[in-house]
Amino acid sequence: MSALTAPLPIAMAPASPDVLAQLDGINKIILACPQIELATEHLFHGGMYARTIRLEPETKMMGSLIKLATVLIVHGDCSVLIGDQRVELTGYNVIPGCAGRKQLFWTHGPVEMTMIYPTSLATVEEAEDEVFAEADQLMSRRDGSGDTIVFTGE
Length: 154
Known about the structure:
It contains 2 helices and 8 strands. By secondary structure, the chain is α+β, with helices and mostly antiparallel strands. The protein is globular and about 40 Å long.
């Protein structure tokens, strides 16, 4: 049996230290603005943790610094900072995400994003602490976030 291996068009690479410093400055500006209500859908299944968010058009969102390799599924049209460059995503994209990355997203239409990674942890807070360097800033940590949590038991 043979396999066809083709390089992926993009991977969510870490940004340079200079870009990370610039993103920290942008994040302070974003946090000073009114924040959107954002519900996160959490799913624990088969040793994996998946978290899904849904964004309205023209949303600007700074992601938290991610400590682990993950898979990110993005459905919709948006601009995203990947590494040190702006990339346009359209349609349905399954993207490998490297550890040490932080993204800035700007949606052009409705966008759904699901991040998946393996974990043996059993609570949302533990899983968030495991994957996010800035877990305390997540919208899911705020009261009344409207999050849903599903544990399948598998």
